[in-house]
Amino acid sequence: MNEALLLTPYFQTEVGIVFFRIPPNVAPSAFGERTLLQPAPTELQTEKSGKIAKCSAEVTACNAVAELAKSSKVRQAVNRRTKLYGDLPYTAYVKQIQTCQCRDGKYCHPEKVLAETQNGLVQLCWHHDKERMDANISIEQLEKLADQNWQAFVAETIRRQLRKSKTAPIEFADVVLWACLNGLMNELNSEEVRQFLGYEKQIDLTKESSIGFEKPDPIAKLHSVAAALKLKVDPEPPASFMARPKLKRFENRKWLQFVKSQPCVCCGARADDPHHVIGHGGGKMGGKEHDLFTIPLCRIHHDELHRNVGGFEQQYGSQLELLYKFLDRAIGLGALEID
């Protein structure tokens, strides 16, 4: 079902049940085997009962995920074999679907089987698999279901790699970051990237008087900032041979931009600013720690830390522990590489 249902509940508190009046244009099969109930948002409080566009934070709520999942390069990248044996990741994902994807509310056999289509795989029960072989289920319906499985699988891959919670929606910024980390920037929609980067809409030049400098290609811009930081190791730096070397502070704006784009290490919300570790004797008078020693914090937890460092570390762990976990994640994401 591509829509949600906006309905008015009628509570029977004495017996602990609730009734809903179903509109005549909604079939019972539209509900599936399980239904999610949640309060309607404020903007829908005055709307009439019936079908509405889905407004919940689903794993594929971002349209960019659906577009990205259509790319053959993306499908190949997310479906690489990670084990010497067993199913490919996409096959394993579809196998774990618990219900028949062609259920119609009438009958489904308890046993399941994978049906292969030109686009991918669909989980069917034995009854509907026979219906498929008898051509009672259209090829278009199966192809659409296979595409939806690819969308959900790509979304799950993005969540797992970016370590997002199952309830947090995927935003376009997440898609851009994931594409950069996996070298798939060319598969993004250039117009959406242009808008994401704040570039003006490109206008076709129709007369000589309108000729001017165009903004750079947005995809090329992503390529230029894809790697957050590459480390260059010098085993014998000149300063190491000095008796009293003047120590330099490590500064890197690209690394700070990456840290700011990551979720808060305390709550998972969008980070406000990169926080330089404090209270461990690394910073000089009037200066900060090296830019490498930063962790992403939202505004609430950033303020909480500066108000009471001891109380913050007692509740969320020491800053060094949070820094270690964040650097471990950054290295795993490929944001830190050895040049």
What does this structure look like?
The protein has 4 domains: 3-53, no CATH class; 63-174, no CATH class; 189-225, no CATH class; 229-238 and 247-338, Herpes Virus-1 (2-Layer Sandwich). The chain is 35% helix and 12% strand. It is built from 12 helices and 10 strands. The protein has helices spanning 63-68, 72-78, 89-95, 126-133, 139-162, 172-181, 190-196, 218-225, 253-261, 299-307, 309-316, 319-333, and strands at residues 3-6, 9-12, 17-20, 50-53, 112-116, 121-125, 229-231, 273-276, 294-297, 336-338. A two-stranded antiparallel sheet has the order 1-4. A hairpin with a 4-residue loop joins β5 (112-116) and β6. α10 (299-307) crosses α11.
| Low-pLDDT stretches | none
Distance between the termini: 49 Å
- Global geometry: globular
Largest sheet: spatial strand order = 1-4
Name the helix and strand elements from N-terminus to C-terminus, one letter apiece: EEEEHHHEEHHHHHEHEEHHHE
Structural class: alpha+beta
Taking all Cα atoms into account, the compactness measure Rg is 26 Å
Helix proportion range: 25-40%
H/I helix tally: 12
Chain-averaged pLDDT: 80
- Give the tally of structural domains: 4
Biggest sheet details: 2 strands, antiparallel
Q: In percent, how much strand structure appears in the residues? A: 5-15%
Number of strands: 10
Notable features of this structure?
339 residues, alpha+beta, 4 domains, two-stranded antiparallel sheet, two-stranded antiparallel ribbon, 12 helices
What is the element layout, followed by pairings?
Blueprint: E1 3-6, E2 9-12, E3 17-20, E4 50-53, H1 63-68, H2 72-78, H3 89-95, E5 112-116, E6 121-125, H4 126-133, H5 139-162, H6 172-181, H7 190-196, H8 218-225, E7 229-231, H9 253-261, E8 273-276, E9 294-297, H10 299-307, H11 309-316, H12 319-333, E10 336-338
Parallel strand pairs: 7-10
Antiparallel strand pairs: 1-4, 2-3, 5-6, 8-9
